[in-house]
Amino acid sequence: MSVLRVTDLTVRYAPGVRAVQGAGLTVAAGEVLGVVGESGSGKTALALAVMGLLPDDARVTGSVRLRGRELLGRSDAELSRVRGKDLAMVFQDPLSALTPVHTVGDQIAETVRIHARVSRAAARARAVALLDLVGIPGAQRRARAYPHELSGGMRQRVMIAMAIANDPAVVIADEPTAALDATVQAQVLDVLRVAKEATGAAIVLITHDPGVVAGFSDRVMVMHAGRSVESGPVEELLRRPGTPYTNELLRASSPARESPVPPSRPERPAVLDVDGLVRHHALYKGPLRLRQAGSVRAVDGIGFRIREGETLALVGESGSGKTTTLMEILRLSRPQGGRVALFGRDTATLRASDRKALRRDVQVVFQDPFSSLNPRMRVADILAEPLTAHGMPTSRARARVEALVELVGLEPAHARRYPHALSGGQRQRVGIARALALEPRLLLLDEPVAALDVIARAEVLGLLERLRERLGMACLLVTHDIGVVRRLADQVAVMYAGRLVEIGPADGVCGDPAHPYTRALLDAVPLADPCLEQRRPRVFLRGDPPDPASPPAGCRFRSRCPRYAMLTAAEGVLCEEDDPESRPVRPGEGAGHSVACHHPLAEGESAP
Amino acid sequence: MWVSRRAAAGLLLLALLFSLVLLGPLVSPSGWDETDFAAFHEGPSARHWLGTTQSGRDVFALTLRGARTSLLVGLFVAVASTGLAAVIGAAAGYAGGRVDRVLMWGADLLLVLPSFLVAAVLAPRLPGGLPVLMAVLAALMWMVTARAVRAMTVSLRRREHVLAARFLGVGAPRVVARHVLPHLASLLAVDASLNVGVAIVAEGGLSYLGFGVRPPDVSLGTLIAEGQGTAAAHPWPFAFAAGLLVLAVLAVNLLGDGLRDAFDPARGGR
Amino acid sequence: MAAFVLRRLANHLVLAVLGVSLAYLLAAAALDPRAAYEDRTPRPPEAVVDARLTALNLNDRTPLADRYRIWAGDVLRGDFGRTWDGEPVNAELGRRLGVSLRLVLPGAVLGCAGGLLLGAWAAVRRGRTADRLVTFGACLLPAVPVFVLAVLLQMLASRANDALGVRVFVWVGESTPGAPGGVAGLADRARHLLLPTVTIALAQLGVYCRYQRGLMLDVLHADFVRTARARGLRRRSALLRHGLRTALVPMTTYLSYASGLLVLGAVFTEEIFGRHGMGEWLAGSVARGDVNAVAAIGCVAVCGVLLAGLVADVLHGALDPRVRGAA
């Protein structure tokens, strides 16, 4: 018996733009349906059409039946009795989806009171109970918090609590974890599972990541260009996709490395040498902001080395200090503490002219291809800018631009376009071409594929891999995505709260992690294979990273460490009092792999 | 570029006003500085299209002369104050640190001072007539725009394409010219056109109270003050001057609003 | 919240002292009270003028720094000195401030509230006839300067009086001379207040309406309004309960700008409706070269603008929990 049945749904915006073209789905009571599609595939429009929340200029045809009752064509007043009661929704970005000026407790209580005649006090009590159910510690206190006072994962828990407040029949979750780190994503999906069991609601989980669907849903529907491409039980569909599109999507979402990891060659000269790098941001308070009230320890003494032709990945959750590290290197000037040396030259000793000359050899690709390209310049001008800035005559620059466009796999016609006329993947190729224009010896990549869709992401990763092979430059790759690490990195450095907790060869760190945090990061990545995904043992991280302005004494990871939680009091003292230093994982086997943990995982213990 | 209907209407209105002000005196049978001793306070006639004032001057020609002054003041003051705002705001935003704090404190101080008081005290006492009046007005009108320019420059400086240019080794002047200024252009265009209206009203107000344009020069402000007393019985002098003033301000406001919509369609009023 | 207000207050105090000092120095340096004495007929002897000016701390032959020191010392004791003709400024200031406040406050409150409501209402009915009318009005009104608006209203009112044959609209002065006290007197005052209040309200209304409409349009499609609807609120209540308050937050910033406009509007309104308030006094004092009076008015204006800024900050803090911890 289906609770929600959508048939032949079409959504059209005013000038004949079709977001959804004849899509359909059915969900049975208590079932989880995963809807997978790239951005622009119409999955959000589909969700909003079901909820009746599309903007006024959208035209919807077809049929949406909830428990057999038609919803399309009903008035706002009629629909408002269904929304939030029988049909609830969890939105993607919980910061903008929660009203900033009301406390989260009030917002949940309001949801209760809209649909049920209960007293204010009873609604509040229910709100606290719901917050407790979704695993918010200190629910009584947190109910009085405003959305901006909570972390991203907490906010999404609040959204879930709100959605299940009136025991709905169906919950639609639109990319509920897209704005979150992998470790937090795993927590939130778990909460969604708890919520489902508590209410018995059917869930429509919309996502771009087949991995999220694999571990969570019973059935899957794949959307592409506004149509449902195929649907079926999750095991069947993900293992034996019936259409080429699904096949491509699945292949792209679990990228396999095309080239083998080269063995580390210590004899090669170092391109980048970072030692004890420190970057603290001062926090000012008081009238005229004169009083310094402490500092955010964004980067707190880290060191690593990249040799010629090698790629080191800097991995960690958002806020761990990865991007700050990258920016400190790019500044090419004396850091607050520690030392940065490029090609053997200490940046503290550089003069302005040296610095400009050195910029030729150190280039960067940014995360967001939308904001990293000047919207008012044509692609050809964007690519020519570094060349002319370093004194190349215009005629030669033009020829070089043509070569660059071809190098990154764009059409010559793209050079005449403005960035907004390109797709995300194409824009990122322009960003890469710009960084390669001066043939740098070191390329810094700041989350180069995080803003891209699954397929574009796989293509750009492939491009980066080939370019690195062909041009032989060294890379520093900043990412939170283990998939990218596995594909590109030779060396991996794991960052947590401004410190490096583990560093070593990629196969060592990813295959046999020694630090519990690394293990948790690896575990948090969902696999697109439902059998593996549902069977493997996983270690969840609790809570959020510590406040970087006041990290806990001793080991900074202590507050979330699953291993620390299992230690005896005597063993735990070390973690509480002593800041762990980095030391080789297996003494005697060379200094390749080191970890900063008092109780590292033994070999084999961490194998999945 | 697509220009909104409002901007087009404003532009059209402005063009009409300018052609009236520039061409009107050529076809008017009387000059603005002539006095007709045969006609005091008369209604419209063939010789005096909109009648005469109390002192026998031709209302049509006189008002166009006044409108010329007002438009001139508006344009010059708007361009000067917006230019000042662009330089100060961009300098504060791009340099940051102490420069930023000092400049913005200056702006705050000027914002707190009642600008009417400053203008009324200074304008009549400085030698130099109209140009000095315009300079005083411009010096009192840049602060709000400068704050907006500063905020935008600060956010632009952090944007990735500006960072990218800096990390590519592009020099600071070139970064400002190619990556910062073009993004400020829309804000400045909008503010400049809105400032024309503010300046016209400010000059009109000062002149109305006798602190602005001095005789023998006339502006819409002085004419409104003159015509107001007898407006009940002889509406022409007041109505024509006031009408031109309102139309001029309306035109530049429409233009400014329309430009804002066109530059920033997501935020527009439409 | 109290700590937040205190912090802002400290910030503002420095600005106030600087602003007031600057206003005095400007007036003292630029204005010429001597001219007013010398223009008298018969022309008084120079020594007499000098002595008189020195006694009033208006003598331009005393160094500016000395005059400022004397003036600042007096002001710190709460004395704004004497006017050009020897009257204490304080007494005049108190009287005129009362007149101005009675004139301006009702209009300001009316204009602000009306503008906000009208703007929000127009935004919700975006694109319909009502919205178009309001938008057009809100575009036209700010283009009409106060000194034109006031005269137009007067003309309309006298037409109406003529047509009705009764003096319904009266506006000269605060009340009819010799009017009775009590309720009838109050009614008489209200009748006199009507036209100036409408003038000030209309001048404010357009500005507020335009901003509020724009801000409301921004939240119309905000994610949190959509969330509120997804929870079962109707569109209208979602906008009222979740959109309006959020849209009011940036409005508080305009409040301090608008207060400057208000001061300016008061000058013209008082001038045209014959009220002996601060604005009329300012215009007269500047013309007479009455330094102490101008400085006192400057002081009130600076404090008024800062006070409006403080009110804006407090409102901002009250409406938006995000700023309470910061700044």
Automatic annotation (TrEMBL), chain A:
PROSITE patterns: ABC_TRANSPORTER_1, ABC_TRANSPORTER_2
GO cellular component: plasma membrane
Region Disordered: start-end pairs: 575-608
ABC transporter domain ranges (all copies): 4-250, 278-522
Location within or outside the cell: Cell membrane
Gene Ontology molecular function: ATP binding; ATP hydrolysis activity
SUPFAM superfamilies for the chain: P-loop containing nucleoside triphosphate hydrolases
Pfam families recorded: ABC_tran, oligo_HPY
Highest taxon, organism lineage: Bacteria
GO biological process per UniProt: peptide transport
Keywords assigned by UniProt, alphabetized: ATP-binding, Cell membrane, Membrane, Nucleotide-binding, Transport
Protein topology in the membrane: Peripheral membrane protein
Similarity comment: Belongs to the ABC transporter superfamily.
NCBIfam families given in the database record: oligo_HPY (TIGR01727), PRK10419.1 (NF007739), PRK11308.1 (NF008453)
Name listed for the protein in its UniProt record: ABC transporter ATP-binding protein
Automatic annotation (TrEMBL), chain C:
PROSITE patterns found in the cross-reference section: ABC_TM1
Membrane topology: Multi-pass membrane protein
Residue ranges crossing the lipid bilayer per the database entry: 12-31, 103-124, 136-157, 254-273, 293-315
Entry's localization field: Cell membrane
Domain of life: Bacteria
Keyword line: Cell membrane, Membrane, Transmembrane, Transmembrane helix, Transport
ABC transmembrane type-1 domain span: 97-312
SUPFAM superfamilies listed in its UniProt record: MetI-like
Keyword match Transmembrane: yes
Main subcellular localisation: membrane
InterPro entries in the cross-refs: MetI-like, MetI-like_sf
A Pfam family of this chain: BPD_transp_1
Family the UniProt entry places it in: Belongs to the binding-protein-dependent transport system permease family.
The protein's name: ABC transporter permease
